[in-house]
Amino acid sequence: MRRLLTLLLLWTTHSLAEPPVLRFSIAESWSMPLMRVQGGQPVEGLLFDLMQAMARETGVRPEYHVMARLRLQQAMEDGDIDVRCYVSTQWLNDRPGNFVWSVPLIHQRDVLVGRAGDNGPTRPEQLPVQAIGTVLGYTYTTLEPFFAAGRLQREDSRSQELALKKLQIGRYRHAVSNALSLHWFNQRLPAGERLQVLAVLEEQSLGCMVRNDPAVPTQALLRALVRMTESGEIARIVGRYGGG
User: Fold this and answer.
1) pTM of this prediction?
2) What is the pLDDT of residues 48-86, one digit of tens each?
3) Which of 93, 175, 202, 225 is the most buried (most CB within 10 A)?
4) CA–CA distance, 207 with 225 (Å, rounded to integer)
5) Residue 35: which residues within 8 A CB-CB, separation 6 or more?
């Protein structure tokens, strides 16, 4: 009996010492510099560093759930994840009512990209009828009227990096990319082969959404993001990967 009580006490102490788990969603379509996933788990990248810092600031143990981008909304509604980052209000048709927005964390520019030496049209309305490189599940507000009218056709890839690789080898003449991913992609290419920005399509502020639930340190996490923003930590993380 004494041994049983000792084991029970040890188990209880261990359980109390174990930090709470915070479940972060990871979109399969993310590639560097946002995230690199290996063996089903993230191992590096801007968003990985951000999530690790968030966990440290609030004393929680991060748990990463990799899923298709189109599955993210349902996962939020089903309560399968606690935090979704790198998201804009413009991307959601219906915001789950039990999630709270953080302060803006990352400023993103979506750009129209062409190959080196492309001297063609620089505005979407000037583009001839063609397929354009896009990422599966991504929303491109500026281009939606052109998709709807049949002027442009989406050619979806699983990730931003793959969409840019297809552009590089001539699969299509133009693609859409966020400026950060384009910069990361170009730095591996000789100067004369780098893809070029033809036009800025839209700019938006991205943040995180945190589940508002007693089991989640929602307010502590939101306050931590405010501190990290004001201290410059978020800017330093973004700067490590070519942003600013």
Assistant:
1) 0.84
2) 999 999 999 999 999 999 998 888 888 888 889 999 999
3) 175
4) 10
5) 26, 42, 44, 45, 46, 47, 48
